[in-house]
Amino acid sequence: MNALLLNPLLTKLDEEVTGLRLDNETQKVVVTVYADDVTIILTDPTDIPLLQNILYTYEQVTGAKT
């Protein structure tokens, strides 16, 4: 996956998804990325439809398949 196409997705996920809270709620982890592997961390079930919408929009804009 091209890094230029991936960065907007990572930014959107960080802004919108709850993720895993660390360090007394001041930091969070939403996505881990290594090479072409992306792991999205969800801890709130209500984030699932939000994630689906973000991924659908990303597919439509970039032509990529998730």
What does this structure look like?
The protein has helices at about 5-15, 45-60; strands at about 20, 25-30, 30-35, 35-40. The chain is of the alpha+beta class and about 70 residues long. The protein has one domain. The longest helix has 16 residues, at about 45-60. The relative contact order is 0.19. The model has no long low-confidence stretch (mean pLDDT about 90).
Short summary:
It contains two helices and four strands, in the order αββββα.
What are the key terms here?
single chain, 66 residues, alpha+beta, two-stranded antiparallel sheet, 2 helices, 45% helix, 21% strand
Largest sheet: 2 strands, antiparallel
Distance between the termini: 10 Å
Number of strands: 4
* Overall pLDDT score: 88
- Helix count equals 2
**Helix fraction by DSSP (H/I, runs of at least 4):** 40-55%
Shape assignment: globular
